[in-house]
Amino acid sequence: MQVISSYGVCCTIHQFNNPTLLSTKQAEFIKHGHSRNWLFQNKGSSLVHKPVRFNCARIAASNFGNVDELQSDYPDNYEEEDIQVTTAIQIKNLTEEIKHMLSSMGDGRSSVSPYDTAWVSFIRDTNINGSSERPLFPSCLKWIEDNQLPDGSWGEELVFCIYDRLLNTLACVVALTLWNTSLRKRNKGVMFIKENLSKLETGEVENMTCGFEFVFPALLEKAQKLDIDIPYDVPVLMEIYARREAKFTSHTSYCRIPKDVIHTIPTTVLFSLEGLRDLDWQRLLKLQMQDGSFLTSPASTAIAFMETNDQKCLGFLQNVVEKCNGGVPHSYPVDMQARLWAIDRLQRLGISYYFAEEFKQLLDHVSRYWNEEIGIFGGRNSNFCDVDDTCMAIRLLRLHGFDVSPDVLNKFKDGDQFFCLRGELNKSPTAMYNLYRCSQALFPGEKILEEAKNFTYNFLQQCLANNQSSDKWVIAKDIPGEMQYALEFPWYASLPRVESRLYIEQYGGADDIWIGKTLYRMPDVSNNVYLQAAKLDYNRCQSQHRFEWLIMQEWYEKCNFQHFGISKKYLLVSYFLAAASTFEVEKSRERLAWAKSRIICKMITSYFNEEATDWTTRNSLLMELKGFHDMSKNSNKTKEMVLNNLRQFLHQLSKATYEDLGREIHHQLHNAWETWLMSLREEKNTCQEEAELLVQTIYLSAGHMKHDEILFDAEYNSLSILTNKICRMLNELQNDKISADQWCSRTTGSSKATDIELDMQALVNLVFGNYSSNVNQDIKQIFFAVAKTFYYTTHITEEVINFHISKVLFQQV
Predict the structure, then answer these.
(1) d(C-alpha 808, C-alpha 813), whole Å
(2) Where does the Terpene synthase N-terminal domain start and stop, copy by copy (predicted)?
(3) pTM for the whole thing?
(4) pLDDT digits (tens, 9 = 90+) for 426-467
(5) Is residue 329 domain-resident?
(6) Domain tally for the chain?
(7) Are residues 384 and 449 in the same domain?
(8) Do residues 516 and 113 touch, judged by C-beta distance below 8 A?
């Protein structure tokens, strides 16, 4: 078996028929000293629904104390039972399957809507000998005949929602009756309706499908005209009729949207035209989308065609029926929603690094149809947009280097509030959650994102406090957990592997259901392949991290860091910050360079604070590192330890980088550390410039810097100055003992906290605002990643950090 050693060097421990990563027993072999001879010498290639809550009080009660307690979550039977770490071939197969899904997304995949299919089947073929006694789309009728559920209903089979089942079933019964076919199926459907109508009285309002109070009565009217034997006067239906009539008899509006506006500009009403009446169809035709549909809805477009015989409507319907083989979805296309949400899910699951090329193609498609005036909708070329798709597009396009303005969000602002769809009665928690996440990627001066951030933060807090996180657009595994994580760990303080570890538990996979006029599934967004790949990849990475943690402990003992007051807990936190930020198996060298650099910095600053407190003593250390002084003539034991540990670290890292990448970094690496020591020599504050040193060490070990000229680039200089300033202020703020709650609620009054927020916005602008600069984007991302770890340790309590360490490094998924 091959594993990646301390700086990415591949070390052969044992051979198995199938290559896997290091097991616990093999790790123990390393731990007990059998690795010393080859640790930095051998060469080779690298190896190819329970909600989670983050209440700090509850976490503190867990009382994670020392390193041994944190590691106790890692099972002794790790190798035999749970993990049997996956082979590279297994992960490769899964990622290839996902790549195929992403590259073949097309118009987006969505499950069939029996309701919409029935409406399309209502259309009569009037072009055959003047007769109208056959459907224009017989494949739709055939789909209905072939897809009745065992209980007589139509609809989502695995999740019973009374609104979905009754609406779908009534529509299909009307279709079969209209064409006088499948009597047995019709009767079975009627029986289901009769037996389940009363359940509307206890149905959860949060799960009511869109426009139910309009579209269901419209179907009842059709059923009554066809003499379908169902009770039309039961109290629950009379209540629905009354609610509809109250909205219909308003002289000014439907659904809080003025009637004149409905015929003038695109609104949500276009999605449910089949449920309305007294419409001016010729005026409405001016609001068609480019593809001939009315807001991507087959049902709405079907009624429009039946009323107008418009050929663009017909063209849309012919296209969707042909592409979907008779069973049409609730909305078509869904190419924007499918692409954006797939990227979002894969990122949060921690496996996006496998799909960089696919993401580029997906976002190129989104960017092609981005409309800076109105935003985007779930399907391309829409003349109507919503805040959910729009804010998701802004965030993902911006973070992947596309130039996109958030000013379009002003379209979704009413006073001091934001909405998803104009005229909505209730706000969607998930839409506000996505807007909150978008608002955190703001550049300096973007007032609209600042306003969105303040509003959505308070809105989501209130949702959780009132236990009102049920959503009207999606039924997902753990929406409250997702919301709570976002509120407690803002983007600046959210480390990638922490988010992935927790989101893997929150993601529902194929069980997630979306809510439109009917329930539907989006396999491009919610599927078990993503989840399986995420779990396998996580455990594979964690196994590598466990191995590296053993190396870190051995290095700690060998270098006697305890002499400098560096605890094993500090060692663990340092490694955790690196592993949670740069987690990929193949980045072992960068990860350990990062973690070890923190320890070496701590050792040197401890020495300077305790012993080398004057300029002369500090300067002598620098001169001896440069080789200008002979260490043996003027040194003590502590200084010898400092110099030996530093030199060994720099030598080993330089050697490993050369052996792995063929890149010589010795000179540049020494210059970076000597420059840092020079700044320490002059400053009483021994935290100066540490962030920049970490960044330089990481990107040198990764082979990102090919020449020194980049150090003199103006943008690079701005990144260095700003990152150093942020991290220095974060250290100072941590000493001020400002709590995370005070920070989030903005009640601290600390000008330093405000300055940090503004500087972080500026850093985000430097990192993500100009992808065509002279500075390599990978280097920019390292600056941001390092700044986030400083923000994280300042923002997050020790108890929560312990909880994260336990989850990320020592608990399998």
Answers:
(1) 9
(2) 280-486
(3) 0.89
(4) 789 999 999 999 999 999 999 999 999 999 999 999 999 999
(5) no
(6) 3
(7) yes
(8) yes
Q: What CA–CA distances, in Å, run from 418 to 387, 422, 442, 456, 473?
A: 9, 10, 17, 8, 17
Query: DSSP H helical segments within 207-294, as ranges?
Result: 212-225, 235-248, 259-262, 281-284
CB burial of residue 189 (10 Å; 0-12, 13-18, 19+): buried
Distance CA 552, CA 497 (A): 19
Alpha-carbon distance of 733 to 777, in angstroms, equals 29
32 DSSP 8-state letter: I
The DSSP string of 507-570 is --GGG-EEESSSEE--TTTS-HHHHHHHHHHHHHHHHHHHHHHHHHHHHHHHHTGGGGT--HHH
How many alpha carbons fall within 13 Å on the CB side of residue 266? 19
Q: How do residues 297-318 score in pLDDT, each as one tens digit? A: 999 999 999 999 999 999 999 9
Instruction: Dihedral sign for Cα 15, 21, 27, 30, please.
Output: positive
Q: Give whole-number Cα distances, 738 to 55, 244, 641, 733, in Å.
A: 18, 53, 36, 7
Q: What number of H helices and E strands is found in the chain?
A: 33, 9
Taking phi over 0 as left and psi of -120 to 50 as alpha, with beta for the rest, 169 belongs to alpha
Q: What is the largest CA-CA distance in the chain?
A: 111
**Three-point CA angle 536, 490, 765, nearest 5°:** 100
> If you count them, how many residues does the chain have?
813
The CATH number for 751's domain is 1.10.600.10
- Residue 346's CATH number: 1.50.10.130
Token pair for 29: 């072999």
